[in-house]
Amino acid sequence: MESFDVEAVNRRDRQEPLYAARKKIHPKRAEGRFRSLKWVIMVVTLGIYYLTPWIRWDRGEFAPDQAVLIDLYHRRFYFFFIEIWPQEFYYVAGLLIMAGIGLFLVTSSVGRAWCGYTCPQTVWVDLFLVVERAIEGDRNKRIRLDKAPMSAEKAVKRVSKHTIWLLIAASTGGAWIFYFADAPKLAVDLFTGNAAGVAYATVAVLTFTTYTLGGLMREQVCTYMCPWPRIQGAMLDEHSLTVTYNDWRGEPRSRHQKKLEAAGKSTGDCIDCNACVAVCPMGIDIRDGQQLECITCALCIDACDGVMSKLGLEKGLISYATLNDYNANMAKAVNANGEIEPDRIRNSAGKLIDTLTHTNWRSIIRVRTMIYICAWAAIGFAMLGVLLTRERLDLNVLHDRNPLFVTLSDGSIRNGYTVKILNMMPEPRLIQLTIEGLPGARLIIPDIKDNPEDAVLLPAEPDQLETVKVFLSMDPKTLTEQKTPFRFVVQDINGSERDSYDAVFEAGESK
Ligand code: SF4
Ligand code: SF4
Question: What transmembrane ranges does the database entry give (predicted)?
């Protein structure tokens, strides 16, 4: 049966546009514990992003000394003491899985904390707002400036703001490419015009996107472009802490509380001052309930706590609360008609009674979050174990296919192999190649003269794959089968690392 979107039909009948024009938001500077936490996170995350490529890490003369480097040309990823090769990409996959589980854990515990505190979009918008406030003033001044006709002062402010935004955007793009090459050298090349074209193109693209997304589009990115707000609903449950307006104590709200109280009417704690709306970077009113736009930045909590302090009321009218706690409080505050009755949860002195007014942080510890923590830790420990025990010497062998074997003039049978020795250490090594399980075999390497018959020493360059052509010859009298299994073994003669490869000696119809 065909279904209709009734609201869409009504909208069409009312001739309302499907997309509302953006109303510019002028967030006021907030003060409080969550704002302080956000400042700290902003400084730490930006510091990590901009400074990491400049940290040096000595790996010896055969490897780059940049602590974190994605070396696309040599296909290596360096992270301090860890070097990841392309075939070890499962480490990156493991880290991505851990990041995903971590996101589930955080969201199911404290809602969209990732969005509100650490998402790059949030961090850079915060940084751009710092610049905007420094040049154009706080909320009211910016609103007045927007409405004012263009003047020399307004033009200077606008040009200054956008110039600094562009500089921040360019340094953001610049910092990104430093992760892919030696940062000090690339910086010199960039400013002297000697860097590769792709470097300038990457900086240009990232400058444009940072400036546009962080400076111009801001909250629209979160609301319209990011899929996370749509996904997060599936991760929340009745025990998740989310930023909540506690209307069970705030309603009925009024700007004229004194007058209403004098008239014998009860009011809630909300004085309808709009301080929570003024600081919201998403331009929403948390008193309208949970909304897709809310990034859980908690700045409205700071704003309202400030108002409550000034009024001498308990903080937490807006707070981190679980749906369960909210419902329990609400059940106590409403009367038989479902209306909020402030007197039901207050004593004669107006103090809140019999309600949970503080954030129940213990709700974070529950079965679901424990499962996430265990899964996260299990993957982390497994990866750490593999990382600490991984071999840095790898052996691979290909048997010649055509011909499988040849009979030499002296009657002996010869097989050819291509031996590949991978030295994954950033230093030269001396590797001994030996044969096990094939007594009487003569090992011949054409490139090496006078090698012993059953073992050979091969130099392996740092971080390199060495390919060696190897021949084995056998007296057919010593062979009992057409295919004789044996093993190639490589060992670092100065260390304990070794690797082996199971191979076969082919004697064909001669056996
Ligand atoms: S409603 Fe509050 S928590 Fe949500 S985005 Fe606005 S200020 Fe942040
Ligand atoms: S800041 Fe607090 S008191 Fe003011 S409008 Fe918001 S919820 Fe009400």
Answer: 37-55, 89-106, 164-181, 193-213, 370-388
